[in-house]
């Protein structure tokens, strides 16, 4: 089962970013509005905890969403819900005596989620967030979110390592699935550009819009 390998790479990438950061660096800004590095790490930590619950929650098939259609509910425009979640995350992260406390919990939880992913039946289904997914599709959604947030974490950390190639490939495949079948990714975009622009982190340029044509109206593909 290869899905857990990409997830392991995605989570290990985040660990490599945060594990040696000082409490001061954990309070640097990220691409996520209002969130410091420690705040965003807590958000990803909650996702790893959700992974553990989901992988221990087998469900009867068939799946009702896959690794691409799962994201269609998470389109931009749900500002009130996003603001409420952002505020909860900030208060929860602030409850730790020091920002490094979030790192300690992450370093315990992320490897456990990866081990659970490796032990899961790849032909089985699980339930999470009101949906039933095949195990490989769940792992792909977790990997995609981790890779995107890895890029969010390092905006003010120029020396931080980049996400791994296998994990990035999963996230890119997700964006390809969300993009119109007739659309062609602009030739000047590398994978990082694609992920940042597909998720609205970086706006499209006029040249991007010309190359994308009508498909520019699909952007951002997810928020």
UniProtKB/TrEMBL annotation:
InterPro entries: DinB/YfiT-like (IPR034660), MDMPI_metal-binding (IPR024344). Keywords: Isomerase. Coiled coil: none annotated. Pfam families: MDMPI_N. The keyword Transcription does not apply. GO terms for molecular function: isomerase activity. This is Maleylpyruvate isomerase N-terminal domain-containing protein. It comes from Micromonospora mangrovi.
